[in-house]
């Protein structure tokens, strides 16, 4: 493997500050978020998202608290947040990206 280095070897050559930043960024990539955290990260209020969805703020607030949301509803919320919903499925140690149909 000419020209390739082991990532751990690269880490040892980084400053402690840089290693800490790399670790924090990696942890953030694997972090699980709830809808309210995502909404806050993109700088929107519940009222902002509710207006984009055409529902009341209390109705949207219930969506954020709900534990049994329909996929179509979640897809609309993610779109209102400016994102795209995607799923991945783990079966037998293999990771599959599941393509979602686009809302009509």
Describe the structure.
- The chain is mostly helical and 104 residues long.
- It has two domains: 1-31; 34-104, lambda repressor-like DNA-binding domains (434 Repressor (Amino-terminal Domain), Orthogonal Bundle).
- 53% of the residues lie in helices and 10% in strands.
- Strands 1-2 form a two-stranded antiparallel sheet.
- β1 (87-91) and β2 form a beta hairpin.
- α4 (46-53) crosses α5.
- The N and C termini lie far apart (48 Å).
- The relative contact order is 0.08.
- The model has no long low-confidence stretch (mean pLDDT 82).
CATH third-level topology of the largest domain: 434 Repressor (Amino-terminal Domain)
Q: Please state the average pLDDT score.
A: 82
Strand content: 5-15%
CATH superfamily of the largest domain: lambda repressor-like DNA-binding domains
Helix/strand order, N-terminal first: HHHHHHEE
By secondary-structure content and strand pairing, the structural class works out as mainly alpha
Q: What is the first-to-last residue Cα distance?
A: 48 Å
Helix percentage: 40-55%
Sheet having the most strands = 2 strands, antiparallel
Kindly report the spatial arrangement of strands forming the biggest sheet: 1-2
At CATH level 2, the architecture of the largest domain is: Orthogonal Bundle
Number of domains: 2
The radius of gyration computed from the alpha-carbon positions, rounded to a whole number of angstroms, is 19 Å
Low-confidence runs of at least 5 consecutive residues: none
The CATH C-level class name of the largest domain: Mainly Alpha
Number of strands: 2
Overall shape: elongated
Number of helices: 6
